[in-house]
Amino acid sequence: MTHRAFRPFRPQLRLEARFQVLSRRIADFSGTAIAFTCALGCVLVWLLTGPLFHFADGWQLVINTGTTIITFLMVFLIQNAQNEDTRELHAKLDAVLQELRAERNMMHDPELLQLTPEQLLQEARAGD
């Protein structure tokens, strides 16, 4: 009988959940000074190797290909992170509006339920 190391129970994350975590981490990291410094360092190394490779087409192709691939992938990762932020923001705004409606006894007034969020906020401010 073999002895297995104890591993705490951890449910397997679905592919989408893993992607959410990865995209959030990369989007958060991409806005840091460390990420900028790494990118700048890559460009400087590329520039300094220009004379070594006689500024050949292959040398230029390296930076063009690298930046294109990174940009292509970052578009999807950052868009995913922004979509998540937008969903969270809308959920919070919906909760605030529900509270305002409940506080002002607006829940059962059909006329007030037809108002836009901006109109509801104006109505709530006018009641203060």
Automatic annotation (TrEMBL):
Transmembrane segments: 26-47, 59-78
InterPro entries: Iron_permease_Fet4
GO terms, biological process: transmembrane transport
Keywords: Membrane, Transmembrane, Transmembrane helix
Pfam families recorded: Iron_permease
Protein name (record): Low affinity iron permease family protein
Annotated source species: Deinococcus ruber
Lineage: Bacteria, Thermotogati, Deinococcota, Deinococci, Deinococcales
